[in-house]
Amino acid sequence: MSDAPLLELKEIRRSYATGAEPAEVLHGISLTIKKGELVAIIGPSGSGKSTLMNIIGCLDKPTSGSYKVSGRDTSGMSPDELAALRRDFFGFIFQRYHLLSHLNALENTEVPSVYSGFKKDKRRSRAFALLKRLGLGDKALHAPSQLSGGQQQRVSIARALMNGGQIILADEPTGALDTKSGVEVMRILTSLNAQGHTVILVTHDPRIAAHARRVITIQDGAIVSDEEHEPEVYPDSEDESAHSQPEAEEGAEFTLRPGWATSLRAYADRFSEAGAMALRAMVSNRLRTLLTMLGIIIGIMAVVMVVALARGASDNIISNISSMGTNTISVMPGERMGDVRSGRVRTLKVSDMKALQGQPFVDSVSPVVQKSVLLRSGNIENNATVYGVSSEYFRVYGMEIGKGRMFSEKEAGENPQICVIDVNTARNMFPGVSSPVGRKLLVGDVPMMVIGVLTDKEVAFRPQDALYVYAPYSTLMHKLSNQDYLSTLIVRIASGFSTPVAEASLTGFLKARHGRKDFFIQSSDTIMKSINQATSTFTLLISAIAVISLVVGGIGVMNIMLVSVTERTREIGIRMAVGARQSDIMTQFLIESVTVCIIGGLAGVILSVVTGRIITAFMPSVPLSFSAASIIVAVLTSSAIGMIFGFMPARNAARLDPIEALARE
Ligand code: ADP
Ligand code: MG
Description:
- By secondary structure, this protein is α/β, with parallel strands linked by helices.
- The protein folds into 3 domains: 35-52 and 87-255, P-loop containing nucleotide triphosphate hydrolases (Rossmann fold, 3-Layer(aba) Sandwich), CATH 3.40.50; 281-317 and 530-663, no CATH class; 346-517, no CATH class.
- The protein has helices at 49-56, 79-88, 105-116, 120-133, 149-162, 179-194, 206-209, 264-284, 286-324, 350-357, 391-396, 409-412, 423-429, 473-480, 499-514, 524-567, 569-577, 582-618, 628-654, 658-663, and strands at 5-16, 23-34, 38-42, 64-69, 72-73, 90-93, 167-171, 198-203, 214-219, 222-228, 328-333, 362-377, 380-389, 401-404, 418-421, 440-443, 446-454, 468-472, 488-493, 519-523.
- It has a 6-stranded mixed beta sheet with strand order 6-7-8-3-9-10, with helices on both faces. It has a 6-stranded mixed β-barrel with strand order 12-13-18-15-17-16.
- Mean pLDDT is 86; it is low at 238-244 and 250-259.
- The structure holds adenosine-5'-diphosphate and magnesium ion.
- Adenosine-5'-diphosphate binds next to helix 1.
- Residues 16, 18, 25, 43, 45-51 line the site of adenosine-5'-diphosphate.
């Protein structure tokens, strides 16, 4: 035993900022304690014993004065350096045990060594050995609530010894115990002292203090006496309490190994321990966790679903466009798509079509006239759209004839009363008829002969269940609607001309003919452009909604984490007292919020895929396209939310003052 002081306090003052002016509780305490001493600090209630003890144990900092542990001045130390001292030098024993209620005796004993980075199996076996030495071998898996006060205090002694417990600080360790358990705890403490542990004991009971060789009396925050005397020895216990005498430690196997604690493996171990802790907290608050997750689940679901819908719709449009071919330009009356006057602009004439046909950039021109009509066949009536076209039209839209024939380019201009119908029309107008070719169909008031039926192939930009009839444009113009203007001209670009060049020439040519630009053109290029524009606006809108819903979910997470930190303040205090770093506390709460968010995110993804399946099963026409990217982004986003919104509560937890946290109930 060396004579150099293990602990050295000089002029320690501590005041609390209560009321108008700070109240000083310790008035300049100077004290040295050597290795291997058993010191009792005695004094009436409120004299400042606990305050002094907390300063000695580096749980609290003095307002002024110096305090050295093993020659190291603690005044400039960071919270983490102080935590390291608590972890490696001190073992706390509190009047109210301060065990973690959701951990069993063994796990409670282990806690300090989690933070000093010992391997799990070593930790386990040592904790168990300690409990056994203290007579709790058969109680290792009991929760604190299943143990008596004396047993709980013995668990807390085991915890104090876990990391070595060179200096054991016991603040009224027997205060909450019956006499017999109190004697037993004191017996353990004196025997630990005999084995070389330095023990500092706070009590207000002189009979307990009498067992220490050195007794320091405090009154009103000042030392009034510091005396040594022959300690009283406990009479040998006859019966069962003998088993709880701790024997000398077998070997120094569990001495401190600095360096180990900073290794990557130790860090990973602490991380997984924090994860286990977080999971335990989530499980013990199941309903709350679920409700918190709900916000994230709904947010992520909204995002994934809407993105799938947008992608599905745009996939649809794009496949429609590409089925239209890339070498055609549509010319329509009016100034732009959706121009309200376009119905009244009647300047697109058959003569324009004939003139265009002579242009070098034009391969062929197909006119389109269109009208809504009532179809009649026998007593069957149906609304339909009739298109007046030329045979070129079928080529442009990739329509194929299934039965019968198309009308020829020549027929198209000679207003014959013939038509080609689509499969839907065949089915609806001629039910049960295997081939309607050759049958008569009343289109509006004009009887026409069906000469062909198209194959069952989807056509771009057409509702699938409507009925379509295709007649020569001349027939439509002269017999059906008596009009001399066209609704659209479809120009096929001659090979060797690019779409932009053809568009420019076409515009110039028609403008010259009409004297002004009373038409607009659309190619698959321009359609694609406007769709991309619409999609990006849409995407922006979705993103805004997504961000809002996720922020709302995140705020829910933050809210619950703040509640959780408040609820577990005492737990945080206990963990800090046994040496948890600020980062350990922070990690524990961050993991909790991130886990909640990731699980919520995954649940959201799964639920949206399931919902998607159900929608597709019942409403096949709703386009949905889930992409792996959007799912990955959703999960990443939700973990980011966990990080961002968990940060503030976790930081609050990490910055708690250990003493205040411990005092919280
Ligand atoms: P003891 O442990 O000897 O009973 P304490 O050290 O707990 O006494 O308290 C000493 C004095 O300091 C008491 O008057 C108490 O009211 C005061 N005190 C302790 N902690 C605080 C605090 N956090 N804020 C204000 N006053 C405190
Ligand atoms: Mg006290």
